[in-house]
Amino acid sequence: MINKILKYRSLLKLFVFIPVTFYFGKRSYIAFDEGFYALQARWILEKGNWTIPLWWDEYVLDRTIGLQFLIAKSQDLFGRNIFAAYLPTTVASIFMLFTTYKLHEELFNKKYAIISPLILATTYLWFDYSHLGTQDIIYSC
């Protein structure tokens, strides 16, 4: 029995992060930037302009189109819902945890490599920004 559990040890490590990474409750666009990016992603899908960000049918070059493009592509693939708008940030936060795990494994100790992503996942800034639809976690990752 213990041998079977040890076989799936790496898979069990992933289940620790599910409550921290995914939020299954009701969401709304909290920050100003979230609504801004989601609205520009909606205009990308409606107008078909995937290269220059729009603001009320005018070209606005005050920021890059990176996150808006990712939100629009996610909504194009999974439907126009709020889960798809938060999906790029969620994927980036998972990738950030995985990268932290691999860096700890390479630089320090393979035995305690799970400690670094656990510390990262319990910090307030990472937890807060990984549940927002902004570009902070994507660029940090």
Features:
single chain, 141 residues, mainly alpha, two-stranded antiparallel ribbon, 9 helices, 64% helix, 3% strand
Summed up, the helix count is 9
Note the gap between the termini: 38 Å
Give the fraction of residues assigned to helices. Answer: 55-70%
Give the H and E element order: HHHHEEHHHHH
Low-confidence stretches: none
Strands of the widest sheet, in order across it, are: 1-2
Total number of domains: 1
| Sheet of most strands | 2 strands, antiparallel
Q: If you compute it from the alpha carbons, what radius of gyration comes out, rounded to the nearest whole angstrom?
A: 18 Å
Question: Which structural category do the helix and sheet elements fall into?
Answer: mainly alpha
Q: Could you give the count of β-strands?
A: 2
- Report mean pLDDT, rounded to a whole number: 79
Strand content: under 5%
Shape: elongated
Description:
Helix content is 64%, strand content 3%. The mean pLDDT is 79. It has a two-stranded antiparallel ribbon. It has helices at residues 2-7, 9-15, 18-21, 32-47, 66-78, 82-107, 115-121, 124-129, 136-140; strands spanning 54-55, 58-59. It has one domain (7-20, 29-140). α4 packs across α5, α5 (66-78) packs across α6 and α6 packs antiparallel against α7 (115-121). The protein is elongated and about 55 Å long.
